[in-house]
Amino acid sequence: MTAFVRYQSAVPNRRGRFPGIFALANGLRDTGRLTDTDRCWLAAANERAEGLYVDPSTVEPGCFDDIRHPGARSWFRTGAADLLTMSAEYLDLLDRYGVGWVELRTDRPGRTTYEDDVQIVAVPLAYPADWPFAPAVSTGVAAPRC
Predict the structure, then answer these.
(1) Closest Cα to residue 92, out of 19, 142, 24, 31?
(2) Cα separation of 122 and 40, whole Å?
(3) What's the first-to-final CA gap in the chain, in angstroms?
(4) How many Å apart are CA 28 and CA 67, to the nearest integer?
(5) SS3 102
(6) What is the tens place of the pLDDT at every residue in 75-120?
(7) Exposed (0-12), middle (13-18) or buried (19+): which is 119, by Cβ within 10 Å?
(8) Which of 116, 118, 47, 46 is nearest to 82 (CA)?
(9) For residues 88 and 98, what is the distance between their CA atoms, to the nearest angstrom?
(10) How many CB atoms lie within 10 A of CB 43?
């Protein structure tokens, strides 16, 4: 089993980023697309989430800093069952409104800028620093055919 999971937009936003599910749900609210029932549910769900889980930026203010930590994003620990159950409700909301999302899983999401018992914030791995293979060296000899 992988250690971390992230739910994010299936397509990048205008800045080339892939917002997470909470940002997507709040985006539905902010653009006036939610029904009154869903808007009330989201307000209650957000309040519950804020009461149960730490907002990483309130504990480590620079953890999402674009200069020091470009592309930093939140990941949930796969063992955080209650947080993942709560996330499923947000995913259901996104599905009802046709907002595409994807699930990413990994044991190594990148360089950690914040972590607690249920989540981490990490800067994604990047080329060439994190690329696992050495550059190919041309010998002038063609590789054998398989």
Answers:
(1) 24
(2) 31
(3) 33
(4) 28
(5) strand
(6) 999 999 999 999 999 999 999 999 999 999 999 999 999 999 999 9
(7) buried
(8) 118
(9) 15
(10) 12
Q: Give dist(CA 111, CA 80) in Å, integer.
A: 20
pLDDT value, residue 119: 97
- Split at pLDDT 50, 70, 90, the class of 122 is very high
**Residue type, position 12, single letter:** P
Tokens of 72: 């930093």
Cα dihedral sign, 92-59-19-47: positive
pLDDT 10s digits, 32-72: 999 999 999 999 999 999 999 999 999 999 999 999 999 99
Q: Which residues contact 22 (CB under 8 A, 6 or more apart)?
A: 46, 49, 90
Give the position of tokens 């397509």: 11
Cut 0.70: pTM above it: yes
Q: In angstroms, rounded to a whole number, what is the distance separating the alpha carbons of residues 49 and 21?
A: 13
The encoded tokens of residue 85 equal 């159950």
